[in-house]
Amino acid sequence: MRLAIVGAGDVGRSVADLAGEYGHEVVAIADSSGASVDADGIDVEGALERKAGGESVGTADPATLFETDYDVLVEATPTTLGDAEPGFTHVERALETDHHVVLANKGPVAERYEELRALEADSAGSIRFEATVGGAIPVLSTIEDCTPQAVTAARGVLNGTANFILTRMAAEGLDYEHVLAEAQDLGVAEADPTFDVDGTDAALKFVILANVLADGGFSLEDATVEGIQDIPGSALELAAEDGRTIRLIGEASRDGVRVGPRLVPENGALAVTGTRNIVQLETKHAGSLHNSGRGAGGPETATAVLSDVGRLPEL
Amino acid sequence: MRLAIVGAGDVGRSVADLAGEYGHEVVAIADSSGASVDADGIDVEGALERKAGGESVGTADPATLFETDYDVLVEATPTTLGDAEPGFTHVERALETDHHVVLANKGPVAERYEELRALEADSAGSIRFEATVGGAIPVLSTIEDCTPQAVTAARGVLNGTANFILTRMAAEGLDYEHVLAEAQDLGVAEADPTFDVDGTDAALKFVILANVLADGGFSLEDATVEGIQDIPGSALELAAEDGRTIRLIGEASRDGVRVGPRLVPENGALAVTGTRNIVQLETKHAGSLHNSGRGAGGPETATAVLSDVGRLPEL
């Protein structure tokens, strides 16, 4: 398939880098200031070098990305809430011109799900969004294969930054501020870590899961969300005396979405460590299925995008 | 899709039972003595009641299954080694007449993989076999989505009977013979438990994994296999003093297949309990992906068969 990648952050760049290995061709990549576009396949290495050097990926007008001949739009611009723009309009444009869309951007899928499905229904193209939930972990394709009706709930840890912080607080007896600074030094937490530590990032993912299970009906404002910023080190010590620890756990079902810190058994499945994520799917006929792995990272998330591309039908 | 199910054991019956829920129709089901065949869809409930009452699923000649109009042959007869008959011939017949095949029977996939792929290449039909490895756990579709080339190895616990026995031996300090008898009473081990306890069943699954990773080249005789029958209770006690336990672990890579009892950390991912299974996939770009869940059971394995049916292209 020919990929047009909008967004040249970690994920967009990794998709461009790995596309060839999966048998696909990159015909365009754009960031906010420029684009590299070539119907015969762009020079990926050159584009990535320019970006690494602090420039834009290319000198063309970003708008020309939509005018090129492509099969799949890869939407990898930063997640935005509410109207989910400019990502939503990118998706809309691609679907209205009968292209496929694969999203890594959570915004449109969490906040305007029914509108996306309506656009898809009127298009020859399909939308897929494995990369929006759990990075490399194939959560959505597992639900799709079971059929959503056979899955009653999804629960787990879907934010690696918060999980890393809680793991380190418990392991070292350090307080939140101290471990957050450590996480930022390591690049595990961003300079502005708000969405990770206040539960918003995890909530967006569980909203997406609820939308998949219920075929729509949820957006971020429907979720009950509590973050990890107020957890004192003493809470983790107390938990440990009881063979427990604390993790930021989310739950999604057709009834709603909740994210918040929970006590979990210290050695149980939900007590994943470091930046690892886990999703437990409760199913009607197959008991509980657990998927764990790396929930974030450029290459990790790119593998989810490229898995989705591999599951698209020929246009 | 219209399903013709050959084999009316736990898996075949569960596939018939759940097919409607997944949007498919059962046009035939056969056991060794009879068949129920109806191009407009059989009376599934009636066939299952007859079987439950000790009779055959139907009064038609089992051979008539292949003469009916169907889309997918579901091969759910008992696993046989070596020439993998009669399962292999069932698959061959379906592919030669341009039908799809979904296998729950491990024999043909472990023992005659390259021949299956050659038959598939000459057919309008495709073969899928998720149900042969890890029951409800979507191992093979995860590898398929990552692309097999991106997966370097698969490791884990793929036999629930052996895992149950080791879990109970460790938990209760009982010896092997005692726990095996308990497992048989519970229906977790068969009257003849040989393939489960000597590692053959697990080895077949890891041979299938190696065939998928390497696109053929392996059969059961290539695997190095050791079972659990000789593990004394004292070995588990000794392991526990060191924070470890023993599990029947298999490993598959392009270099080969090994199955045998291994010491694993007591609280680690590989120390799944009871009849649960786990597969860890090592990937090039996405680190380690863990999938765990119920590895056996009629409904559980049927969900894997029906997931496969859902991924088949229209004929």
From TrEMBL, chains A, B:
<dbReference type="InterPro" id="IPR036291">
    <property type="entry name" value="NAD(P)-bd_dom_sf"/>
</dbReference>
<feature type="domain" description="Homoserine dehydrogenase catalytic">
    <location>
        <begin position="138"/>
        <end position="309"/>
    </location>
</feature>
<feature type="binding site">
    <location>
        <position position="190"/>
    </location>
    <ligand>
        <name>L-homoserine</name>
    </ligand>
</feature>
<feature type="domain" description="Glutamate/phenylalanine/leucine/valine/L-tryptophan dehydrogenase C-terminal">
    <location>
        <begin position="2"/>
        <end position="61"/>
    </location>
</feature>
<dbReference type="InterPro" id="IPR006096">
    <property type="entry name" value="Glu/Leu/Phe/Val/Trp_DH_C"/>
</dbReference>
<feature type="region of interest" description="Disordered">
    <location>
        <begin position="288"/>
        <end position="315"/>
    </location>
</feature>
<keyword id="KW-0560">Oxidoreductase</keyword>
<dbReference type="InterPro" id="IPR001342">
    <property type="entry name" value="HDH_cat"/>
</dbReference>
<dbReference type="GO" id="GO:0004412">
    <property type="term" value="F:homoserine dehydrogenase activity"/>
</dbReference>
<protein>
    <recommendedName>
        <fullName>homoserine dehydrogenase</fullName>
        <ecNumber>1.1.1.3</ecNumber>
    </recommendedName>
</protein>
<feature type="binding site">
    <location>
        <position position="106"/>
    </location>
    <ligand>
        <name>NADPH</name>
    </ligand>
</feature>
<dbReference type="Pfam" id="PF00742">
    <property type="entry name" value="Homoserine_dh"/>
</dbReference>
<dbReference type="GO" id="GO:0009088">
    <property type="term" value="P:threonine biosynthetic process"/>
</dbReference>
<comment type="similarity">
    <text>Belongs to the homoserine dehydrogenase family.</text>
</comment>
<dbReference type="InterPro" id="IPR019811">
    <property type="entry name" value="HDH_CS"/>
</dbReference>
<dbReference type="Pfam" id="PF00208">
    <property type="entry name" value="ELFV_dehydrog"/>
</dbReference>
<feature type="binding site">
    <location>
        <begin position="7"/>
        <end position="12"/>
    </location>
    <ligand>
        <name>NADP(+)</name>
    </ligand>
</feature>
<keyword id="KW-0521">NADP</keyword>
<dbReference type="InterPro" id="IPR022697">
    <property type="entry name" value="HDH_short"/>
</dbReference>
<feature type="active site" description="Proton donor">
    <location>
        <position position="205"/>
    </location>
</feature>
